[in-house]
Design brief:
With 105 residues, the chain is an all-alpha fold. 56% of the residues lie in helices and 0% in strands.
């Protein structure tokens, strides 16, 4: 019984760590004030994160392009409302946020 229980516990532990990054990245988005203008699944001031993911799905260089927009701001892609620069977000955090956003469906 112990031989069966050990792999089961290891598997459960591994699966629980796989779900952490999505939750952790949503927490990062909240802590960096992204959620003031964006939500995961609905438009607020800016587009939803899922709409962003759909628009950039499979596009080469989208991750770098979006990380730059997170840091420096941008406009004209989603309408007339520009996205402001986010000096409170580091380059590593911008990359982490974009990686998470691009996984959303």
């Amino acid at each position: 019984m112990r031989l069966l229980l050990s792999p089961l516990l290891v598997g459960t532990a591994l699966l629980s760590t796989l779900s952490l990054p999505a939750h952790a990245n949503q927490q990062l988005a909240q802590s960096k004030a992204c959620m003031a203008c964006h939500q995961v699944d609905k438009k607020v001031v800016g587009p939803s994160f899922t709409d962003i993911s759909k628009k950039y799905a499979g596009k080469k260089g989208a991750d770098a392009q979006l990380a730059t927009k997170v840091l420096k701001g941008g406009g004209g892609v989603w309408g007339t409302m520009p996205m402001p620069a986010n000096p409170q977000v580091s380059e590593a955090e911008a990359k982490q946020l974009v990686k998470w956003i691009l996984t959303l469906k």
